[in-house]
Amino acid sequence: MRKQRLEAIGKRLLEHRQELYAEILRKNREAAGLTDEGVPDLADQGLTDNLREFLHLLSDNKREELIKVDEALDRLAAGSYGLCQRCGEPIDIQRLEVRPFTRYDVACKEAIEKEEALKAGPGRGTL
Q1: 102-to-27, 37, 48 alpha-carbon distances in Å
Q2: Reduced to 3 states, what is the DSSP secondary structure of residue 90?
Q3: Confidence (pLDDT) at 35
Q4: Can you give the residue ranges of the Zinc finger DksA/TraR C4-type domain (predicted)?
């Protein structure tokens, strides 16, 4: 990959990292700010608890994405950015432009998803 393209991707990764971090902080503040005023009935308490849990799950997903972004930045610094971590082949540049923190090429990602679906068993993860 050309140096200019790598620098542009690195800049996008850093910007995305800052956005994720800010969003995680915001969701945690929102969850912490949910308080029960007065004597709530059980439905109000349940709704508040569910909303708080939902906000924490959102921030957990963002934390996982933040870790992936940090790993991509580490690969960029190490010179291994853009190579599939499963097969070692170059990842298509269009994929990297859409998901700059991806670790796998399309073929390996599909294989991983199939393996995970088989491990989960029939009917798991479907509505």
Answers
A1: 24, 44, 35
A2: strand
A3: 60
A4: 79-114
**pLDDT confidence tier of residue 36, bands split at 50, 70 and 90:** low
Task: Give the contacts of 73 (CB within 8 A, at least 6 positions apart).
Answer: 10, 13, 14, 17
Q: What gap in Å lies between CA 81 and CA 3, rounded to an integer?
A: 12
Q: How far is CA 62 from CA 24, 49, 67, in A?
A: 6, 20, 9
Give the end-to-end CA distance of the chain in Å, rounded to a whole number. 41
User: Which DSSP symbol is given to 38?
Assistant: S
Task: Assess contact for 75 and 91: CB atoms under 8 A.
Answer: no
pLDDT in tens, 57-101: 677 788 889 989 999 999 999 999 999 999 999 999 999 989 999
Token digits for 67? 């870790």
CA–CA separation, 63 and 114 (whole Å): 25
Closest by CA to 92, choosing from 79, 109, 117, is: 109
Q: Which domains occur in the chain, in start order?
A: 3-120 (1.20.120.910)
What would the pLDDT profile of 2-15 be if each residue is shown by its tens digit?
A: 788 888 999 999 99
